[in-house]
Every structure is written in C-alpha cells, then in structure tokens.
Amino acid sequence: xxxxxxxxxxxxxxxxxxxxxxxxxxxxxxxxxxxxxxxxxxxxxxxxxxxxxxxxxxxxxxxxxxxxxxxxxxxxxxxxxxxxxxxxxxxxxxxxxxxxxxxxxxxxxxxxxxxxxxxxxxxxxxxxxxxxxxxxxxxxxxxxxxxxxxxxxxxxxxxxxxxxxxxxxxxxxxxxxxxxxxxxxxxxxxxxxxxxxxxxxxxxxxxxxxxxxxxxxxxxxx
Length: 222
Fold this sequence. Notes:
The protein has about 220 residues and is an alpha/beta fold. It has two domains: about 5-135, 3-Layer(aba) Sandwich (Rossmann fold), CATH 3.40.50.1390; about 165-210, no CATH class. It contains eight helices and seven strands, in the order βαβαβααββαβαααβ. It has helices spanning about 30-45, 65-75, 85-90, 95-105, 125-155, 170-180, 185-190, 195-205; strands spanning about 15-20, 45-55, 80-85, 110-115, 120, 165-170, 205-210. The strands form two sheets. A five-stranded mixed beta sheet has the order 2-1-3-4-5, sandwiched between helices. A hairpin with a 4-residue loop joins strand 4 and strand 5. Helix 4 (about 95-105) packs across helix 5 (about 125-155) and helix 7 (about 185-190) crosses helix 8. About 20% of the residues are buried.
C-alpha cells in the first residue's frame, strides 16, 4: 500500500497557488505567474482552494503575510497540493525550501514548481527533493568549515577574535561612587560586572576585561 505522500494527487484535489514579486511595477506582475498556475491546475483537474499572493515583498524576508497564511492553512490540511511558478518565488534559500518541502511531506501535501517542472508526487520529483536536501546539508557543512578555517587563520596571525574588551573607566566609576551609588547600581548602570567595578575602584585605575562572545563574530571569514 502506498503512503499518503506517495499518492498521486487525484482530479478532485484542492490546490493552493502561491505567487510573489519583490517590486511593484518595473515589469513585475504576479498576474503572469497566476495565469500559468491556473492553467496548469485546470489541466491537472485540480480545484483551486485559494491564491496566496505576496506583492512587492522580498523573497529574503523571513516573514511574508501570504506565505505565512499558506503555511498555516497547510498545517490545517485545507488543500492537497501547493503550486508555485518557480522555486525562488517561494523559498528564500535552499535550506528554507527543503525545510518547507519536508513539512509538506509530513502533512501529505505535494509540491509543484511550474518552471522547474518539479512535482513531488512523481518519482523524479522525489529524487530532486532528495538531491536538494543533500545540497542544503552540504552547503551548511561548507559554511561551518569556512568559519572554522577563518578563525584558525586569524588566530595564527595573532588577530584577536571575539568581541572587543569592555573598558572600565576608573574616573567615571569613582564619580558614580562619590554620588552615593552602591557597587550593584554602578554595575547595572555601566553594564559591567560587580567584581570589575569593585576591582577598578579598589585599584584606582581603568581595567579591561575580555567579554565572552562567538569567536567568528565581527571578523572576515575566508
């Protein structure tokens, strides 16, 4: 018996159409995308559940109103198929695409990209999905390796990595202390630790302390 994600959408399946353009005007028009998607859905005998349109919204945005609405309706299983004009109209990255397709797979919803001719209900479409997932994983691993290599290279050249050290200004701290502020209040006001405030006041000279942080932050990666 075939699983729900292996079942080819029937002629009475409900389909969600998604279209997006990043700029209003300038030759960009979701109408062209929707016309192709409507024609395709009609040829497959699918009933259009709803057309989700993000007009003038960048594909790199994490949140898009119509896409968010589509995903919410998908989780409620209100349609059987999602059809887009092209991958880059739908996903902001390979990883985003693979994550969405994986969720659709668990929900038993098929995904069709009109221009790329990818249909996850077909054996070829499933193979392309697997390949896309492998490339997404490879991409993530390569990024990690470049970050590690960049950190090692910087350290080898004596470059300090991480956040710059916090500076405790002895004069400023003493003025606050002279105004009657306790150590705790001074630490909260300056963003320094109580121990650093106490040490600076005790020694009477400015102190520097290394702040914790992600080593790759604020540095160029090879």
